Amino acid sequence: MPSVGVFVGVIVVVTILSKSHADRNVYPSAGVLFVHVLERDYFKGEFPPYLKAGDASNDPITFNTNLRGFPDRPGWLRYIQRTPHSDGVLYGSPTLEHIGKPTIIEITAYNKRTFETARHNLVINIMSTEEFPLPYQAEFYIKNMNVEEMLASEVLGDFLGAVKNVWQPERLNAINITSALDRGGRVPLPINDLKEGVYVMVGADVQFSSCLREVESPQNQLRCSQEMEPVISCDKKFRAQFNIDWCKISLVDITKVVPVHSIRPDPGTGVLPEIGEYNPPSESLRSRDYFADFLITLAVPSAVAMVLFVILGYSMCCRREGVEKRNMQTPDIQLVHHSSIQKSSKEIRSMSKNREISWPLSTLPVFHPVSGEVVAPIHPDSYEATSMPLMQTQTNLQNQVQIPQQQTSGKCIVLSDTRSLE
Boundaries of each Dystroglycan-type cadherin-like domain copy (predicted)? Predict the structure, then answer.
């Protein structure tokens, strides 16, 4: 199982296998992309034979990688495995801090069909290099690649070859590869074989070529701000295999970058410094008078509320005119109307209590329409009217008025008019 280090178009394979096939030693260089493939075929031989029917060569195998003695890997080392039927890949860019310190990675393989496990150790010995760091670094965003596809030695070699033709450096190294998902990108929809995209950083020892500088021109910057593709003369050298987003390319000259050093204070012992004895405040402090605060917060609002309450009570209770004063100022004819309405309402309410009684008797007007004199009704309020008909006959009525009748007797016409006067 080889470990791949990529230099200028040349793929160097450095792998040392121990006799027990349990430990592997690899020697990556600091600042150069490190790629190590966990091949499923290699770990299949560690599992006992599967006696049941089935194709043992297609067992689903997953890997778990961690730094020995810790639950996770070092910060510079990443791992990816797309499916249980594909190989796993460890990749990353070592730093100068780990030079000369062996990093032991525990690799555990799980066979999900037989539930067997196999464990190996990968010993990473990071070596220093005179080419680190390369002063000119460019980061490309490739839209039509996934990270595991870009990590393949053939694909990465083709990309570095295209960059070398455009840049023409003496030394060119792949520094790092990062998935677009690790930069905040979204998972693409599963249509038209869309890829998640990958960032590839390369470094060289010469100035950026004029082709790469074209992305910094005002015209291309304007096109990028309008979400249009910039016009790059060397894009055709990549377009056949790599779809590069030239608006996201990053060109960095680390020789012009001003390093920022944060000044940290010297850590102490964790014990507070000696500042002498604690001196509490003296007891001769002047006591504070809270009477003014009491007046402002309680007494004044209470007094205002009491005055408002007295004014409201006087307006509602002491300013009422009363029923007698109202009746004295009301005309008699209006009071008679009001009384008749009350009596009628009382009669209707009494009728509603018993639906089977007959209709109410007709009554004379309760007042004279001309003089306004109050006239007593025919029957008092307590009169039993349930047995009386709705309309009385004219013979039973007081103040009877007979309607003139026309009688015909031969040729003589007799008119009789009988009127009873009061």
Answer: 25-133
145 vs 323 pLDDT, higher one:
145
Most confident residue range from 266-275, 323-332, 372-381: 323-332
Mean pLDDT to the nearest integer, 115-119: 86
List 179's β-bridge partners, or say none: 198
Q: How far apart are CA 139 and CA 136, in angstroms?
A: 10
Residue 368, Cβ density class (10 Å: 0-12 exposed, 13-18 middle, ≥19 buried)? exposed
Report the CATH superfamily, name and number, of domain 3-49+58-124: Immunoglobulins (2.60.40.10)
Question: How many Å is the Cα radius of gyration of the chain?
Answer: 54
Rounded to an integer, the average pLDDT of 311-337 is: 79
* pLDDT exceeds cutoff 80 at 367: no
Q: How far is CA 130 from CA 28, 29, 31, 172, 238, in A?
A: 13, 10, 10, 13, 30
